Every structure is written in structure tokens, then in C-alpha cells.
TrEMBL record:
One of its GO terms (cellular component) is outer membrane-bounded periplasmic space. It comes from Ornithinibacillus halophilus. GO terms for molecular function: N-acetylmuramoyl-L-alanine amidase activity. Residues 1-29 form the signal peptide. The keyword Hydrolase applies. Residues 26-95 form the SH3b domain. InterPro entries: MurNAc-LAA_cat, N-acetylmuramoyl_amidase_3, SH3-like_bac-type. GO terms for biological process: cell wall organization; peptidoglycan catabolic process. SMART domains: Ami_3, SH3b. Keywords: Cell wall biogenesis/degradation, Hydrolase, Signal. This is N-acetylmuramoyl-L-alanine amidase.
């Protein structure tokens, strides 16, 4: 329940703050920046100005947003920094023209920069001003900015929490020891999975999560599937993610697949959130989300998924999956997927 509230706050907060910044950046362009309120119980945000465009989020009755462009009854606003469109039929005009206020926000761009650069510790005041900050949020509102829960009051922006702070994630680097997993031209799956796990783990820790590993970099030992699951169940973590790279006889097989097992309802949600984030972030073929009774999924008491992050046996995937850049993208995608999953 608490998590649900957090999500609403997160969506509204990000929309409003980003809009405020965006409006000041585009004030000189031909944008109106009018302030609207949602006048419907739920309003879909879509990636384009049509009913067919994919839904990227939802606003609730009373949420406020700024609009910057109109097309056939659809208006553009911003969500998590990305332009999104909502049907203007369900909006109520609150205040026209934001340009005058923008002159007062003089340096909202640098406020944004200050926020990003200075957010370090919990309860840090990351911005304060003797002058009011023009951000259209109710007083003492809490929301997330750049993965931190932030509190905005009239003259200060304060960090209250890291977004994944209450969560414990188990990362399971597939294979290890005498079990190399898939191999191709000297490349071993066990080495790729351990590198991937450490990049993901670092990123999750940056967002405040507690991370445990079933296998450490220095660990040359073989760890059985039974031991991995035992470890996970004992830790009583919030999510278990097993990392693999695929191998198949046919070198044409390629792409990313996500697996879950139906013994845990949450596993499907976790699989969906992480998979869609991966497909969105990484330029790989979508092999879908599938229900498969793998041992580490079947016997896990935590929400558990297994990711096949590309094919070692496919020439194109083989090149891509060895790059640091790919691991970074995968880590970012998994982190975002987890944030989405936990905020449901
Ligand atoms: Zn594997």
C-alpha cells in the first residue's frame, strides 16, 4: 500500500518538476506552458498524440501538468524527461502562460544541475534559497528525482531516501568453477556472467539497495544450483536474478529472453518489469518472457527470474555482449526494471 502511494507521488513529482525545468528551457520557443489539472479518475500518458500510441504511464484525478504543444486534441508534456502525450479532453485549465514565472526561475537549469551533483546523503539539503523556488508542487511534497526520494519545501530541496534503500537483491552469476557454461572462441559464459553481476550490483548499490552474490569474482569454486537456491532462501531477499548468456547450435539464434516460474506470482511481475526495461534499453531481439521450471526458479522462495542476455553462439551478439557499454546498459535496464517492479 505504501509502495503504491510512492508510485503516484513519483509520477506526479517527476512530471511537474521536469515540466517546470523544460518550460524554462523552451520559454523563448513557441511553447505555451499552461498549467492543467487532470479531470478524470485515470488519464493515460502515451508516447504519441493518438489513441494507438503505447501507454507510458498514468496520471490521476487532480494531478497537475504543464503542456507545451497541441496536436489534434492531444497535448505534449514531459514524463521522466521524455515527451509524452495526453488527451486534452480530460484536462482542466488552471493557469495560462508560464513564461512570466520563468523569468523568475532565472536559473532553473542550474538548480537542476545542483540537485544532480549534490545529492549524496540522506537528509542532505541539496538546494536552498532565500527566494521562493518556483516549482508547482504542493508544499512539503515528497517525490523521487534521479532515483532519490526528495522533499521540496518552499525554500529547500532535501533528499530523504534512496529509491531502492529498503530492498535486498540477490544476483546469481550463472555457472562457475568447472562449469564454464556456453563457450565460443575462448569466451566463457561463466566469466561474462560474473562481470555482468558486478556491474549490476554496483549500480543497484548506488540506488541504495543491498546486494548479495551467490558467486563472487574471486570465487573459482563451482557452486551447485542447490546451494544457490539455499543461499537465496536464507537471505529472505526481495528479488533473485540469475544471469546467463545463451548458446544454441544454430548460430542465427539471438536476442534476450526472460524466464520465471509460476510458483510465485510476483516472479511474473518481476520478469515483465525487467524484461520490458531490457528490451527498451538494449538493442537486441525480444525473445519474450517465458514460464520455465528451471531449478533456481522452481525452488526459490523469493520472486525469481533468470535472464539470458544474448547468445554467445551468435556472431553479432558475441561481439556486443563482450562490451563494457553493453553491461552498463543491461545494468541500467535491470535497475530501472526493479524500480518499476517495487513501485507497483
Ligand atoms: Zn547459462
Amino acid at each position: 500500500m505504501m509502495r503504491k502511494n510512492m508510485k503516484n507521488i513519483m509520477i506526479t513529482g517527476i512530471v511537474l518538476l521536469i515540466c517546470t525545468f523544460a518550460s524554462s528551457l523552451t520559454a523563448s520557443a513557441d511553447s505555451n506552458g499552461s498549467l492543467f489539472e487532470v479531470d478524470a479518475s485515470l488519464l493515460n500518458m502515451r508516447s504519441g498524440p493518438t489513441h494507438e500510441a503505447p501507454i507510458v504511464g498514468q496520471l490521476e484525478d487532480g494531478d497537475q501538468l504543464r503542456t507545451f504543444e497541441e496536436q489534434n486534441g492531444w497535448v505534449k508534456t514531459f514524463f521522466a524527461g521524455e515527451p509524452v502525450w495526453v488527451n486534452s479532453e480530460y484536462l482542466k485549465l488552471i493557469k495560462e502562460d508560464h513564461n512570466k514565472e520563468d523569468e523568475n526561475i532565472e536559473d532553473s537549469n542550474s538548480i537542476s544541475k545542483t540537485v544532480e551533483e549534490q545529492v549524496e546523503k540522506e537528509n542532505d539539503v541539496i538546494f536552498s534559497s532565500s527566494e521562493p523556488i518556483f516549482i508547482d508542487l504542493p508544499k512539503d511534497y515528497e517525490f523521487f528525482l534521479e532515483s532519490r526520494e526528495v522533499k521540496i519545501s518552499e525554500h529547500a530541496v532535501t533528499v530523504t531516501k534512496e529509491i531502492l534503500e529498503d530492498y535486498h537483491i540477490v544476483l546469481d552469476a550463472g555457472h562457475g568453477g568447472h562449469d564454464s557454461g556456453g563457450t565460443n572462441n575462448g569466451l566463457k559464459e561463466k566469466d561474462l556472467t560474473i562481470k555482468t553481476a558486478s556491474v549490476i550490483g554496483e549500480m543497484l548499490e548506488e540506488k541504495g539497495a543491498k546486494v548479495s552474490y551467490t558467486r563472487e569474482e574471486s570465487d573459482k569454486e563451482f557452486i551447485s544450483l542447490q546451494e544457490r537456491v539455499k543461499m537465496s532462501n536464507k537471505l529472505d531477499a526481495d528479488a533473485f536474478i540469475s544471469l546467463h548468456y545463451d548458446w544454441f547450435d544454430d548460430p542465427n539464434a539471438n536476442g534476450i529472453g526472460t524466464y520465471f516460474y509460476h510458483n510465485n506470482n510476483k516472479s511474473l511481475d518481476l520478469a515483465k518489469s525487467v524484461h520490458s526495461s531490457l528490451i527498451h534499453h538494449v538493442d537486441m531481439k525480444d525473445r519474450g518472457v517465458r514460464n520455465v521450471p528451471y531449478y533456481v526458479l522452481r525452488n526459490n522462495q523469493e520472486p525469481a527470474i533468470l535472464l539470458e542476455l544474448g547468445f554467445i553462439s551468435n556472431p553479432n551478439n558475441f561481439e556486443v555482449i563482450q562490451k563494457d557499454e553493453y553491461r552498463e546498459k543491461v545494468a541500467e535496464a535491470i535497475t530501472n526494471g526493479l524500480i518499476e517492479y517495487f513501485s507497483k
